[in-house]
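During the second half of the funding period, the structural biology subgroup turned its attention to how the target accommodates small molecules. The most pressing case was NAP, which had performed well in the primary screen but for which no bound structure existed. We therefore specified the complex as follows and requested a full 3D prediction, including the ligand pose.
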Amino acid sequence: MKALQLIPSKEGNRIEIRDIDKPSVGTGQVLVRLHAAALNRRDAWIRQGMYPGIQQSVLGSDGCGTVAEVGSQVAQELLGKSVLINPNNNWGDNPSHQSEDYHILGMPSDGTFAEYILTTPDRLITKPDFISFAEAAALPLAGLTAYRAVFTHGQVSKGKKVLISGAGGGVAQFAFQFAVAAGAEVYVLSGKQEKIDKLMAMGAKGGFNYKDENWAKQIQKSVGSLDVAIDSAGGATFSNLIRLLGRSGVLVFYGATLGLPPKVDLFRMFFNQIRIQGSTMGNDEEFTQMIQFVAEHQIKPVIDSVRPFTDIASAFDTMDAGEGFGKLVIAFDV
Ligand SMILES: NC(=O)c1ccc[n+]([C@@H]2O[C@H](COP(=O)([O-])OP(=O)(O)OC[C@H]3O[C@@H](n4cnc5c(N)ncnc54)[C@H](OP(=O)(O)O)[C@@H]3O)[C@@H](O)[C@H]2O)c1
């Protein structure tokens, strides 16, 4: 089968489509024939060597396909089912945090950038009918991260004032769609007017550009205090978000792309009873809840482009360039 392998090297990691053996199905396992997969920032950072524990493997955390083979002790009814793959491995027993054995699908374990993937039935969930394979492939990692940040930690609900920072990002777009679906008053912060316009058309109450140095003042003036801010930028954006939160406000962050914040206003934080909450991925129950929420609210993932597997390297380049709006999807059947 064809698979995109990461080849680690001191001179710089490479990615290459190679012919490798199709995995054989063992007891309790299933083989899924992938129809679509999607990129995450994680894949780009692994290629750039900016991720711990890099080793040769098939990359890709997001995928959707059809069950092609089942091993002994697996229900035959699974054969032919359209499924999404949960990228969590070994979350563990504590719903609050992942175990020491936790890892995300696609390095070190072989991931979804391949024609077939070997997995177990407990990693599969039925694809909702209303979305295509390409749309479903966009969901797993980013949707799960967004779901936990927005609902478990952010407690976003109807009427709350929520700011999604870097709203054009892969995870942030889901956070935006989920918060809008929950009936919150959702504002967006992005670096591109074009993205802000698209998000306004999708239900944002207001949009602000972080390239404008007065963005925080503009939000303060036109929106007032926020209940929830969701961020993955960190840096100076983070310091400003703390300033924008009102009493009992919560800042949920799942990344720190810009590094450490220059200032954390502890005085404001204790006086306003502000909570800063880190968030990573989500547990298996949240994965199921996320898919149910998507189905209930008929949320269609935003797709930037769908390109054939043979062009997958160009999707990595698009991600590095920070271009596009929506998920970068790879199709195996074209
Ligand atoms: N903890 C976890 O489980 C988890 C899971 C997934 C991702 N992550 C991390 O979260 C981050 C984002 O991941 P992603 O896949 O969503 O990446 P992505 O699609 O590349 O999104 C990154 C976004 O950051 C925004 N940004 C850049 N500079 C900013 C600034 N000064 N202020 C506010 N936003 C800014 C941009 O938003 P605009 O396009 O709107 O300008 C960009 O689209 C990465 O650090 C990633 O490693 C963590």
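Two results from this model are relevant to the next phase. The mean pLDDT is 97. The first strand starts at residue 2 and ends at 7.
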